Amino acid sequence: MRTVFIILLFIFLLIIGLIFFKNFNSNNPILTNTSSIDNNLTIDENQSSANLIFKSSFDDKSTILLTPDRKDSEIWWQDIKSPKESHSNWPIEKGKGSFQMIVNKNNINDYIENKIEETIGINNSKTRALHQIVKKKEHEWTQVPYLIETDNKEQKQLYIRYSLKLPKNLSEVLGKDGWLALSEYKTRSDYRLALYIYADENKKLYWYAHGDNVVLDDIPYKEYWYRENREVPVPEGKWMDVEIFWKRSINKDGRVWLTIDGKTVIDYHGSTKLVEPIRIIMLFTNYASVPLDQWIDNVEVWDNFPCGAGKSCH
Question: Contact at 8 Å (CB) between 277 and 152?
Answer without folding.
Answer: yes
